[in-house]
Write a structure and sequence with these properties.
The structure is a single chain. The protein has a domain at 11-70. 75% of the residues lie in helices and 0% in strands. It has helices at residues 11-36, 39-82. The longest helix is centred in the middle third of the chain and has 44 residues, at 39-82. The radius of gyration is 24 Å and the shape is rod-shaped.
């Protein structure tokens, strides 16, 4: 299995990748423990894997929110730059 190195990604996605790698490891340990009949250790490793996956989901959600706010900011900036200048309102009555 090939794991991307995360080069060029933001820190949130790098953290998500690290957490998923940890989850993969813990899931494999749980699988092996089941095969060896070590049910308590399998349970502990499975819970740890699930916790790592939850952390990865949180990191990806944060990266999505960050990208959305960045995109909204860029969209607002480009809209403001493209809008024609308004003439001052006539204040004489």
């Amino acid at each position: 299995m090939m794991i991307p190195d995360g080069t060029g990604d933001g820190p949130m996605l790098q953290e998500a990748a690290r957490e998923l790698e940890a989850a993969i490891h813990d899931a494999r340990v749980a699988f092996d423990c089941i095969g060896l009949g070590e049910i308590d250790r399998a349970h502990t490793s499975a819970v740890t894997a699930r916790t790592a996956i939850d952390a990865a989901v949180t990191a990806v959600q944060a990266a999505l929110a960050q990208a959305a706010s960045r995109s909204a900011g860029e969209s607002a900036a480009s809209s403001a730059a493209a809008a024609p200048a308004r003439a001052p309102a006539d204040t004489e009555s």
